[in-house]
Write a structure and sequence with these properties.
about 350 residues, mainly alpha, 12 helices, globular
């Protein structure tokens, strides 16, 4: 009897252990399935990495003398023919790097043919301008100064004549480029402005969300983020800057309303590049309307609806477009107030060329 009792007790204990092992395994399996389901419901944030850097300098730290020179040049209207337009005129740093006009007015009020994109975070893009014709911000900075519709300076030589007429600029160039026997050059002007623009970074609430702060986005914005990914917007607007890293055809699925501007085709002459444009970054997009290369849409919700239709072949409801627009607002960052303060510019001298309104 004693032996039988021991065997019976042992069997009960074994059955008890097996029961709890099976139950625990089942619970673990269910928890695993639940985790997968939750992961499927949550957007893949890896689409929007790596984290936003503090600046875009290729070498650290940045040369402060070079940055200071670039800041002065960025704000100096004497780099335009009539001395009434600076880089900041079209890319206003206190207005998220734009002028909020469909097309920016240039020399004698002439209008450019494309909407002026923001300079904030632009140094990280694959190229500059809507058609990518400039490789970086240093090359881009040299373009508008000589463009007859924009700042309209007649030549590089005239720009250098202006700069060399002011001893403070001559000294600033010599300090920023100490190894050069002729520091005041047009290429150095581009390098200086580019160095300044590489510090134009706008960290936003989304960056805190990306880093793990679930409270950085409200419920509507989180719904919008999920819709943004599920609808396919992130196919093109991905990476740290939600764009700026590829070229895409305007009108991938349905025709783009305005076919006059053929995009990169004008630069390359390649048939493949017809209607191809650099995908714009969506950072600060809430503040940088009107939208698209042709500045044709004022409302962000309307822009979202148009993009879904022309690029993805989808018709979003008003509520869906509203949620996505709410999410995009989480990409609105804070411009670096101290960094973008207009500097005291070098004083003109008797030899400084006068404004030319012709």
């Amino acid at each position: 009897m004693t032996l039988q009792w021991h065997h019976g007790t042992r069997d009960k204990i074994q059955r008890f252990i097996v029961f709890w092992v099976v139950l625990a395994a089942t619970l673990l399996m269910l928890l695993g399935v639940s985790d997968v389901a939750m992961a499927d419901e949550s957007p893949n944030l890896a689409l929007f990495g790596p984290p936003l850097p503090e600046n875009f300098y290729p070498q650290q730290p940045a040369d402060p003398e070079l940055v200071d020179l670039g800041r002065s040049l960025y704000f100096d209207k004497r780099l335009s023919k009539n001395q009434d337009i600076s880089c900041n005129s079209c890319h206003q740093l206190d207005h998220y790097g734009v002028d909020n006009q469909p097309f920016s007015p240039g020399h004698k009020g002439q209008l450019g043919g494309r909407n002026s994109p923001s300079v904030y975070n632009a140094a990280a893009h694959v190229a500059q301008f809507w058609d990518g014709r400039a490789a970086d911000v240093e090359a881009q900075a040299k373009g508008p100064i000589l463009n007859p519709v924009e700042m309209a300076m007649p030549s590089e030589a005239q720009v250098l004549k202006v700069l060399n007429s002011m001893p403070e600029y001559v000294e600033a160039f010599a300090t920023a480029f100490p190894q050069d026997k002729r520091p005041v050059t047009y290429d150095h002007l581009g390098q200086a402005i580019g160095a300044f623009e590489r510090g134009l970074v706008t960290p936003a609430p989304f960056d805190r969300y990306f880093a793990g702060d679930q409270t950085a986005l409200n419920a509507k914005q989180q719904r919008g983020l999920t819709l943004f990914v599920d609808a396919g917007c992130a196919q093109c607007h991905n990476g740290t800057y939600f764009g700026g890293n590829t070229y895409q055809k305007a009108g991938r699925v349905n025709p783009w309303p305005n076919q006059e501007d053929q995009g990169r085709y004008k630069v390359t002459g390649d048939e493949y590049d017809r209607m191809l444009f650099k995908v714009p970054s969506l950072r600060n997009v809430t503040e940088t309307g009107p939208y698209f290369h042709d500045g044709s849409v004022k409302s962000l919700k309307a822009a979202v609806v148009q993009m879904a239709n022309t690029q993805l072949g989808k018709d979003l409801s008003n509520a869906e477009a509203g949620d996505i627009a709410a999410f995009l607002d989480s990409l609105t960052g804070e411009p670096p107030a101290d960094y973008i303060q207009p500097p005291i510019l070098p004083v003109s001298t008797e030899s400084t060329p006068a404004a030319d309104p012709t």
